[in-house]
Amino acid sequence: MYSSPKFLWPGWPVAPLRLWLMVGLGAFAVANLIFLGEIWPNTPVAESVMLLVLLGTVIDACVQLVWVLHGWVSNYAGPTWARLLLHLVTIPMIAGCVGLALLFCVALVIIGLTSL
């Protein structure tokens, strides 16, 4: 029943549109931070705003990645040992995404409070 090696490998997860939008907005914020002197020469607040935008997109992208990884593992219909192995790989990834999102939430609050 599970003799085909292709059946053991789960299909690639589908990234939601919101995740792609966050990646694009994050790339826009990084480009603005790199070329800050050329794009925003007379706006001193632009760096703080772009940092807040970048942190917000990373937080939302981490949440989206958690949902994608959870759905990827939940919909896998392979053998039990392969499902367990997939869980062992994705659970630390989910924990890392959650930890990174919490760390960036703290950074978002600190940057928001210091820019007041």
Describe the protein.
- This protein has 116 residues and is mainly alpha-helical.
- The protein has one domain (16-114).
- The protein has helices spanning 5-8, 17-34, 36-39, 46-74, 80-114.
- The protein is elongated.
- The termini are far apart.
- 12% of the residues are buried.
Task: Itemize the secondary structure elements and their pairings.
Layout lengths: L4 H4 L8 H18 L1 H4 L6 H29 L5 H35 L2
Helix pairs in contact: 2-4, 4-5
Any descriptors?
116 residues, elongated, mainly alpha, 5 helices, single chain
How many distinct beta strands? 0
Helix percent band: over 70%
Give the overall silhouette.
Answer: elongated
Alpha carbon gyration radius: 19 Å
Helix and strand sequence: HHHHH
Give the distance, in angstroms, between the N- and C-terminal Cα atoms.
63 Å
Low-confidence stretches: none
Approximately how much beta-strand content do the residues carry?
under 5%
Tally of distinct domains: 1
Class from helix and strand fractions: mainly alpha
Count helical runs: 5
- Major β-sheet annotation: none
Averaged pLDDT:
84
